[in-house]
Design brief:
By secondary structure, the protein is of the alpha+beta class. It contains 21 helices and 21 strands. It has four domains: 298 residues, FAD/NAD(P)-binding domain, CATH 3.50.50.60; 142 residues, Elongation Factor Tu (Ef-tu), domain 3 (Beta Barrel); 100 residues, Arc Repressor Mutant, subunit A; 54 residues, DNA polymerase, domain 1 (Orthogonal Bundle), CATH 1.10.150.570.
């Protein structure tokens, strides 16, 4: 019935969708196996993409030729650039999406890809030969052969849903769990564990009084995620802010004796940075209120997502407490919040390509690796899809360094440090975040992707044009002398001291009050230079402005990255017996032997490996 595929992707969430698209667009004959293809890339939790650090990841996915940014632009209902009051390294795009349109747009895009086939079924077993994956088995009793397999099972592996004292099997509410894969992997020698996540009640917006909440509008001039010509958003829906209270907390506490988390029915560890409302009350008992984000689910629905009110308490207590929040006095709910517990595999069992160390040609991506978030999952899926095809074609692995992308930070953190709680990306995790801004993701990544055949030639042409024009304008502002009288009135208008004598235009741009766009309008010679830009003028001007203001920071960070990169190029062989190197501490020997780092750089980031241990290791490999 089936011929052998180059790549089989198991699971159609955000990781699976990006993996399948990348593999097929790179020319591999790809099969996406999912329970229901109409649920691809479903927003199981909040209807939003991006946010702090996550927005940078979406832009990187887009720069690499992935689809998440394009789909988000097509389906968003609100856009906000977060942290605009801070430096550009912290700017993070975030969009509310129409949940149903998001999934529909993903399906439409996937069904356009010529090399991509679909099969609606449940994979319940893996087929291996001589420590290599050769195919999968399904619930329908079918065996499908493949050169590579990517597992992106999300929360479905032995998933169990909890609401109060009730618990039942499921990968999402209303959808069955997946059995068999965990059991096969454990037999093959993989370490497995449990994690937990949750989701809030969904509320009927018609029953809410939004006048009692704080309106949160989108940006006046909304931005977008994709570097392609997706259309800018013309109209937006507002979100709202609301707050819990002591009264709300007291009602929720009455359900703690029925909480699956507090009474020990849930064994998995939940997300530290996105806890349930009952967990927040318990951990932050000194706080008398918690902020809630009231988010619409789409253009043509009344459904509201109450971000910050995730709960697994009994449904009657959830509703009773909810109705004590201002604006929610008459709230009606569509379904209660719930917790879900599922299997994951500690990611130290993976290589940088996301291929498993134990079974060749088998890749893991998404929540199976212990991460949380659509963006983190999509990034892993994209990288696994690329690397599966590179492996099939006997080409060099596609690996991003920590200094090249947040995606590089994400994967390095996972495979080097592992995670015992759901991993979420933050800007603080990236030591080179001044380099890894959301505005320059295409400059950092698109040509790399074009060279392997994923990002198309038009994208590469655009990036080369940007680089050329940025260099030309930067050279102009570094050499152009500006006379005081030309911008005197402008400087006064922005409360910046007038110039006393002629200075280089670049020095004026260093002033925090000065905007490069305003200088274009006030300096005729500069406007002439800017008007020479044939396309992508706004993006180029923004980039020149950022680089001019933060040149010293960027330069220092790049120098640091270059110095540290030398250790990334000191490679370590897989067969080293670290336990035999007695001059290294015992903890370090154990961890080095377990993780088998690929380089000195990776070894230096393993928790428990000290600088002294690295010095010994350098001497050892020097011998």
């Amino acid at each position: 019935m089936f011929e052998e595929y180059d790549v089989i992707v198991v699971g159609g969430g955000h990781a699976g969708s990006e993996a399948a698209a990348a593999a097929a667009n790179l020319g591999a004959k790809t099969l996406l196996i999912t329970m229901d293809r109409h649920n691809v890339a479903q927003m199981s939790c909040n209807p939003a993409m991006g946010g702090i650090a996550k927005g940078q990841i979406v832009r990187e996915i887009d720069a690499l030729g992935g689809l998440s940014g394009i789909i988000t632009d097509r389906t968003m209902i609100q856009f906000r650039m977060l942290n605009k009051s801070k430096g550009p390294a912290m700017w993070s795009p975030r969009a509310q999406s129409d949940r149903d349109l998001f999934t529909l747009a993903w399906l439409e895009e996937l069904e356009k890809i010529e090399k991509l086939d679909f099969w609606e079924d449940v994979v319940n077993g893996l087929v291996t030969e001589n420590n290599k994956i050769v195919g999968v088995k399904t619930q329908l009793g079918i065996t499908i052969k493949a050169k590579t397999v990517i597992l992106t099972n999300g929360t479905f592996l032995n998933g169990k849903i909890h609401i109060g004292e009730k618990s039942f099997a499921g990968g999402r509410i209303g959808e069955k769990e997946s059995k068999g894969i965990t059991e096969d992997l454990v037999k093959l020698g993989f370490e497995a564990d449990r994690m937990k996540t949750g989701t809030p009640v969904r509320v009927d917006g018609r029953s809410l009084d939004f006048s009692k909440m704080i309106e949160q509008k989108g940006d006046e001039i909304p931005g977008k995620f994709s570097y392609t010509n997706t259309k800018p958003l013309k109209k937006q829906r507002s979100c709202y802010l609301a707050y819990t209270s002591d009264e709300v907390h007291d009602i929720l506490r009455t359900g703690f004796e029925f909480s699956p988390m507090f009474v020990g029915r849930i064994k998995g560890v939940g997300p530290r940075y996105c806890p349930s409302i009952e967990d927040k009350i318990e951990r932050f008992s000194d706080k008398n209120k918690h902020q809630l984000f009231i988010e619409p689910e789409g253009w043509r629905t009344n459904e509201i997502y109450v971000n910050g009110f995730s709960s697994s308490l009994p449904e009657d207590i959830q509703l009773k407490a909810l109705r004590k929040i201002k604006g929610f006095e008459k709230a009606k709910i569509y379904r209660p919040g719930y917790a879900i517990e599922y299997d994951y595999f500690p990611p130290t069992q993976l290589n940088y390509t996301l291929e498993t160390k134990k079974i060749e040609n088998l890749y893991f991506a998404g929540q199976i690796n212990g991460t949380t978030g659509y963006e983190e999952a999509a990034a892993q899926g994209l990288m696994a899809g690329i690397n599966a095809v590179q492996k099939i074609n006997n080409k060099e692995a596609f690996i991003l360094k920590r200094s090249e992308a947040y995606i590089g930070v994400l994967i390095d953190d996972l495979i080097t440090k592992g995670t015992d709680e759901p991993y979420r990306m933050f800007t603080s995790r990236a030591e080179y975040r001044t380099l890894l801004r959301q505005d320059n993701a295409d400059i950092r990544l698109t040509i790399k992707s074009n060279e392997i055949g994923l990002a198309d030639d038009n994208r590469a042409i655009n990036v080369r044009h940007k680089i050329k024009e940025i260099a030309r304008l930067t050279n102009f502002i570094n050499n152009y002398g500006i006379k005081p009288e030309i911008i005197k009135n402008y400087l006064i208008s922005v409360n910046s001291p007038p110039l006393k004598h002629q200075v280089k235009l670049s020095s004026v741009l260093l002033r925090p009050q000065v905007k490069i766009e305003a200088l274009v309008e006030h300096i005729p010679d500069f406007k002439i230079e800017v008007d020479k830009i044939e396309f992508l003028k706004e993006e180029i001007l923004e980039e020149v402005g950022i680089m001019s203001k933060y040149e010293n920071y960027i330069s220092k960070e790049q120098d640091l990255a270059n110095k540290i990169s030398k250790y990334e190029n000191v490679f370590l062989k897989d067969h080293i017996d670290y336990l035999a190197i007695e001059a290294i501490s015992y903890e370090a020997r154990e961890k080095l032997n377990k993780i088998k780092p690929s380089s000195i750089g990776q070894a230096s980031r393993i928790s428990g490996v000290s600088p002294a241990d690295i010095s010994v290791l350098l001497i050892y490999i020097g011998k």
